[in-house]
Design a protein that fits this description.
Layout (H helix, E strand, L loop, with lengths): L1 H8 L5 H24 L8 H32 L2 H4 L2 H32 L5 H8 L1 H11 L2 H26 L6 H21 L11 H6 L3 H11 L4 H4 L5 H12 L4 E3 L9 E3 L34 H9 L13 H10 L19
Antiparallel strand pairs: 1-2
Helix pairs in contact: 2-3, 2-5, 3-9, 5-8, 6-7
Length: 358
């Protein structure tokens, strides 16, 4: 009995944490190499770029891991031995381990597919995918063999769990006093604090090659950052034109008789309008309806007859059929109707700060 007790002291509860950290680093590194191979024609082939990709990439990987580990470290630190050595905790540890491994495989696969479509790590587009999951899930289900992919990831996760289960079982037998556990937990608390002050988005913009910057990033870290910032880099995702050429084209499109532009600033379309006839005081009523799709109207094929008055309006008034949606949500329609602007990357103007006086 004494020898068994002494042997168990050679193990630590935190072997559980470190085992998953090493696996996560291996998973992130493998994905980074795979993405680098895929983007090879687009990246700059220099030693400095390689150091930047893998050095800064490891930095971001550790930052994300340090945040992710906090609740698990706290549990391992404070849970008493009786509960820690119980069957309940053993089951929960195994289940959580399998979930973490599966999550890493799932995240890596999702990143690969996202990169194939957008050529970047997770960004605000992926946040929109999560928020509007009904539409996106249906699209993904139709585009990819989702069930076989998820099943394959589960098999891979189970096999990986089997490989590390022995280490977990040994760590679950560890007997450590609180002061020793606290010493081992201390680095896990320092890591997130350092990450808060020294890790930010500015680090991943040092290279002039956007592919190099993306490869040096960490997908889950970028996902959380995108969720927090609610922004998308317009110049990185939209084709740009020459403002000096586009501004006159815009003015020519808007130029009419009895109108005079007030200045020559780029894209400034403010103009003085001289009335050509007697003014009329018309009553204009603008009605906006939440989530009213054309499919509910009789004019566009609905047999229900749920909108009799609107069905009457299109016969008595003007019907504009050559219209296009400016986005997938009602807020996009509101900003289009009230401001006549196209959709902006990230959140709509309606939900952005400092949107008054527009």
């Amino acid at each position: 009995m004494l020898s068994t007790h002494i042997e168990s002291n050679h193990h630590s509860r935190f072997v559980i944490i470190w085992s998953h950290i090493l696996f996560a680093l291996a998973a992130f590194g493998t994905l980074r190499i795979a993405l680098l191979i895929k983007a090879w024609p687009e990246v700059s082939h220099t030693v400095l770029s390689g150091i930047y990709i893998f050095g800064l990439g490891l930095f971001y990987d550790l930052a994300f891991i340090s945040y992710f580990c906090i609740p698990f470290v706290l549990f391992i630190l404070i849970v008493p031995d009786k509960l820690y050595h119980s069957r309940v905790n053993r089951f929960l540890t195994y289940a959580m381990s399998l979930a973490v491994i599966y999550g890493l495989y799932f995240s890596g696969t999702a990143e690969w597919l996202f990169w194939e479509e957008f050529g970047t790590r997770f960004n605000f587009i992926s946040v929109d995918y999560l928020i509007y999951r009904h539409e996106v899930a249906q699209n993904i289900y139709e585009s990819y063999p989702l069930i076989p992919i998820l099943a394959a990831l589960l098999v891979a996760a189970v096999l990986t769990f089997v490989l590390i289960k022995k280490r977990l079982a040994e760590a679950l037998k560890a007997v450590e006093p609180f002061h020793r556990r606290f010493q081992q937990a201390l680095p896990f608390f320092i890591g997130p604090l350092l990450a808060i002050f020294f890790v930010g988005q500015s680090l991943r913009t040092l290279s002039p090659n956007n592919y190099v910057n993306e490869l040096a990033s960490n997908g889950p870290y970028q996902f959380v950052a995108a969720f927090r910032n609610n922004e998308l880099d317009y110049k990185a995702f939209y084709i740009q034109g020459d403002d000096a050429k586009l501004s006159p084209l815009l003015r020519d499109h808007l130029r009419q008789a009895h109108q005079k532009f007030t200045n020559e600033q780029v894209f400034d379309i403010r103009r003085e309008i001289e009335p050509s006839g007697t003014s009329e005081r018309l009553n204009v009523v603008l009605i906006t309806v939440e989530s009213l799709s054309a499919k509910y109207l009789k004019r566009f094929g609905s047999p229900s007859g749920d909108t009799p008055f609107m069905d009457q309006w299109y016969r008595e008034g003007l019907l504009f059929t050559n219209c296009f949606a400016t986005g997938t949500r009602t807020t996009r329609g509101l900003e289009a109707i009230t401001l006549s602007i196209p959709p902006t990357p990230g959140r709509s103007v309606v939900k952005r700060p400092d949107n008054a006086h527009m």
